[in-house]
Design brief:
The chain is α/β, with parallel strands linked by helices and 410 residues long. The protein folds into 2 domains: 180 residues, no CATH class; 199 residues, Rossmann fold. It contains 15 helices and 8 strands. A 6-stranded mixed β-sheet has the order 2-3-1-4-5-6, sandwiched between helices. The chain has a two-stranded antiparallel sheet with strand order 7-8. The protein starts with a helix and ends in an 11-residue tail after the last helix. The N terminus is likely disordered. It binds guanosine-5'-triphosphate and magnesium ion. Guanosine-5'-triphosphate binds next to helix 4.
Length: 410
């Protein structure tokens, strides 16, 4: 388990390498953006931790089912009888080889349980969630909603402020129940049904704007799945990708890599995060490569490219080692010796980029990083073959990175 959570084989080495890059960047006037980018990549990979997601809402509104839908596994108890979840406690869940900390709460507004909100607030105060996910049943977005909204405002206010109030993502659950009779399963492309879903979202948006004075994302979903003995036998999930994207977007950088892995319908997120590593490493490589000696040399590109490749592989949901890296490069046709560390492997790959000698220019450094990153994304994220990844490398090495390869895009 501990080994699984380590970002790379030789994490200490990598951190020292990134420190060296930062030292260099700090001596270069005008490299502030590159320093920020480097910090972001570092937070994403080296600083990575499990996301903390808290799900709240009325009894029986589908909170536990929603957790199972996002994670794609039967990890939380659900039930037709209201009040299935009885206690609020953070739990560590392991799904798809990564960890997430989840707070599944008992329904608020439980008649006869006036102390329940205080319990939930105490748990939220003790450990701050990264995001509050608040569920409203599709058939309950209007009548009686004021009480839910008052609870949302009060509970959110109980979460310690960290720079800003904790972000909220609002979910309209069980949208299948809005369907005209007899058409309840996805894809919900019936126009009348879609109009009802849109109307429920708009109604809730208006209430939220009034109660919160801001406009959190509101995502309609169907979350229902059936598992028999741990095996999924029915899947009515609809729009869960959107929800995964909204929750992911609300997370701090340090929680984004694990979240992209644990959200089962998160393929688009995984690709975007992988490209963020590639774009960020490319733009920092440019600055490093453009710096005249004696400060910069090829070795400084290695921690950057190692961070990038490790980030791409992790985003794809796999784990990574020097051995896996050399096997991958060998598969692409790069000659790497057996038993090399990850940095040596990356160094070997770099020699393969046209124009790389003892020193490199900014453009060559950026191109080498970009081409390696693009090949890794094609292979690990898109599932391309070695031949296709090699072709992507060659094309990227020929064309160089696009103008806007810089990382901080959404
Ligand atoms: N048709 C349909 N049923 C759903 C959906 N989501 C949840 N349910 C059902 O609604 C019931 C309650 O779901 P839970 O996930 O247990 O709700 P909860 O909010 O966790 O409930 P408590 O823990 O009791 O507060 C269960 O029977 C679920 O199968 C959905 O999207 N569609
Ligand atoms: Mg529950």
């Amino acid at each position: 388990m501990a080994a699984e959570r380590k970002p790379v084989d030789d994490a200490d080495d990598l951190v020292r390498g990134l420190d060296d890059v930062e030292e260099l960047l700090k001596r270069i006037p005008g490299a502030k953006r590159a320093v920020d980018e480097l910090h972001d990549l570092r937070s994403l990979l080296v600083g990575r931790r499990a996301p903390r997601v808290a799900v709240l809402g009325r009894r029986g509104s589908g909170k536990s089912t929603l957790g199972n839908a996002l994670l794609g596994a039967e990890v939380l108890a659900t039930g037709a009888v209201e009040d299935t979840t009885r206690t609020a406690a953070w739990v560590d869940l392991t799904v798809h080889g990564d960890a997430v900390r989840w707070l599944d709460t008992p329904g608020l507004r439980a008649g006869g349980r006036p102390g329940r909100r205080a319990e939930v607030e105490a748990v939220l105060r003790a450990e701050r969630p990264d995001v509050l996910v608040w569920t409203f049943k599709a058939t309950q977005v209007d009548a009686g909603v004021d009480e839910d909204l008052a609870e949302l405002v009060a509970v959110r206010a109980s979460v310690p402020v960290a720079g800003a109030a904790v972000p909220v993502v609002v979910v309209v659950t069980k949208v299948d129940e809005l369907a005209p009779a007899g058409r309840r399963s996805p894809p919900f492309d019936d126009a009348a049904h879609r109009a009802r879903i849109d109307a429920a979202v708009e109604t809730l948006r208006a209430h939220l704007a009034r109660a919160l004075g801001e406009a959190p994302p509101v995502v309609p979903v169907c979350a229902w799945q059936r598992f028999d003995g741990g095996v999924r036998t029915a899947d009515w999930r609809w729009n869960v990708e959107r929800l995964a994207a909204e929750v992911h977007g609300a997370l701090p950088l340090v929680a984004q890599l694990s979240a992209a892995r644990v959200f089962e319908r998160g393929k688009a997120l995984r690709r975007r995060l992988a490209m963020r590593f590639v774009g960020g490493a490319t733009s920092v490589s440019f600055v490093v490569g453009a710096t005249p000696l004696p400060f910069a040399d090829l070795a400084l590109l290695l921690p950057l490219q190692t961070t990038m490749l490790t980030g791409v592989v992790y985003a794809s949901g796999r784990s990574w080692s020097a051995r896996a890296a050399s096997e991958w490069l060998a598969g692409l046709g790069v000659n790497v010796g057996a038993g090399m560390g990850l940095r040596e492997v990356v160094r070997a790959a770099l020699r393969w980029v046209p124009g790389v000698g003892a020193t490199v220019s900014g453009a060559v450094a950026a191109t080498g990083t970009w081409a390696l990153g693009v090949a890794a994304v094609r292979f690990f994220i898109d599932g391309a073959t070695f031949g296709e990844a090699r072709a992507a490398f060659d094309a990227a090495a020929k064309d160089g990175p696009p103008e806007d390869a810089g990382g901080s895009e959404g």
